[in-house]
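Input/output pair, single chain:
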Amino acid sequence: MLVDSHCHLDYLEREGEDLEGVVARAKEAGVGRLLTISTKLSDFETVLSIAERFGDVYCSVGVHPHEAAEEGQGDPQRLLALAEHPKVVGIGETGLDYFYEHSPRDRQKQSFRAHIAAARQSGLPLIVHSRDADEDTISILQEEYHTRGPFPGVIHCFTAGPELAEAALSIGFYISLAGILTFKTADALRDTVREVPLERLLVETDAPFLAPVPKRGKRNEPAYVVHTAEVLANLKGVSTEELAAATSRNFFDLFKKVEAPE
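Output:
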């Protein structure tokens, strides 16, 4: 069994996809659990309703750094209240994005720290987005970890270099790989991933974005995580079955509220 540890089913539904079909195709491909991710609290009820609709789908609660200007959180209280729902299993996605800078950096950082506090207090894993912001991401994660206490988490859709990977691993985080791993231009990423221990790796689609080879150019969906998993298995020198078992085990170790199949 594989797990799609990060997708946006609400985006797919808004784009006209039949979610019953999306979830069914994922199941047929061997994807047994899906984690659909919150990016705006104003859309959280929609995200939660999708998780409630499907037994194999869970969700997170959080505010993407793009939305920090309008919906960024100054403290963890609202996140903690919403995270009490049994289908809410993670905090985020949160983090820093200096590529687009849709929100001021100070608001991104403030909201990032509030999400970290929510993860620490709830024990739920932090789901971190970092783009062109490695230095500040490392600084905030390490400062929060060493001065205020540990918290579980994952760097999602990892595309950075070894510095962020090493910093994340040093505080017990996991690294999640999306379809970019399969791109011809991703040699540097593949070099970094070769050095990440298998017991710290997850796979994801980030659907509807970043469809992997051989689905590039198409709308991504959770079933396509199998293609990223195949490339990752080759990189790590293991069978696809071993890779699926390891990444699924890692997912359930991190996202402890998700019910694992018997």
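The chain has one domain: 2-254. The mean pLDDT is 98.
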